[in-house]
Amino acid sequence: MDRKMNFIMISPHFPANFETFAHRLYENGINTLGIADSPYEELSQGLRDHLTEYYRVDNMEDYDQVYRAVAYFAHKYGRIDRIESHNEYWLELDAHLRTDFNVFGYKNEDMLSIKTKSQMKEIFRKTGLKVARGRVFTSADDARALTEELGFPVIIKPNSGVGASDTYKIKSEQELEDFFGYCNPQVEYIMEEFIDGDIVTFDGLTDHEGNIVFYSSLEYSEAVLDTVEKDSDMFYYVPRDIAPELIELGKKCVQAFNVKERFFHFEFFRIKKTKDLMALEVNCRPPGGLTIDMWNYADDFDIFDQYARVVKDNQFTADVQHRYNVVYISRKANKNYAHSIADIEAKYGHHIIDIESVPGIFAKIMGEVGILARTETMDELREIVQFAQAKQ
Boundaries of each ATP-grasp domain copy (predicted)? Predict the structure, then answer.
């Protein structure tokens, strides 16, 4: 009789739509072992039903506590086969535990290249990809000298950071001096030339050997920084058609960053003037928000189940044809829209998948209400977005 695989899920309840990973791993005959700091009673019923066992720690930031939880599971169930959170925040914790328990996947020594933007740049360059000029600066004087070289505007962001948090567009010497007043002295920052381009992504999943078994893309109405700064509506979508050059560069990145049996989310600039692609950063985890669900709607399949099959048997069985465009449309509470949600449903109901409220922490970017819709053509997609976001 085959031994059951043991899969430790770090923080399996967050974000809520990732709970389905536990469901599908469990349904595929894998021991799902959860570790988090939430009381068991506060986990959803669905998650409780699909965890083989749950170990609550007082503090996820205390490595010794989490280490003891993994040791307990190893003692009770035998060798641990996988440790995964699918979450940027816990990437280093996952790697530390994998290193200490000798588990398949990224280890401590891999973290520098997938967590720090300066190392990513080096790997991009070695792979032959274009990158924005810039580097880590070590002092205020060094930063001033660097702006002389790059010219304003510049982008300053943490060398190791998630998303657009703590990221600044600096347009003048005065704004740079202001930045020195409010920046976090504990953080190492990187400065880059400002690129006038749209962000496009190459996202997907690889098998055990690092072959891409599924890929997709995301395009955004505008940069997250602009959405926050202007408090504007945004939308983003999974397109049916993906540019061949994006696929080619994405494949190079998957190889260069040694992505094995993992989700990936690689960001590129499409430069407005030339339409050339320039590598921005890599994220070795699934894209955030509802993107992973949008993949399912774009192709009528179940990525959570396919992931479980890859983990268990290294097999991806879905027939991916990129059948639909899927769009997320934000609506903010402080805007005066021309059409109500009921109007949108009445007019475009056959395209609408779901309408949901967004938790407060994400609302500044994602809006208080998110509309998910799918279309066969980009014209239909644009029409729905315009109608949903039109103002009185």
Answer: 121-312
